[in-house]
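We examine the record.
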Amino acid sequence: MSFFFWFILLAAMLYVPVSNLIWVVSVRRLQQKLGSPLEGEALQGQKTRARFISLFLVTLFSWLFNLWLSSTGNG
């Protein structure tokens, strides 16, 4: 029970900052590639993409981190 609580809590806490970080990096990379600022629909598309990627990364990281903590006897 404790494992899943901490797994979900860590994932929830990391989701917004990781999503924003991925979004900013993605938008900057695409703006540099295109040579012009992005407009509304392109920005929204990058936001959706960043949310999906961050959901996967945060879930994986949280699961592995809590698994490591529980196996070392600290959790």
Summary: Residues 2-34 form the longest helix (33 residues). The helical segments are 2-34, 40-72. Residues 13-72 form one domain. The CA atoms of residues 31 and 37 lie 5 Å apart.
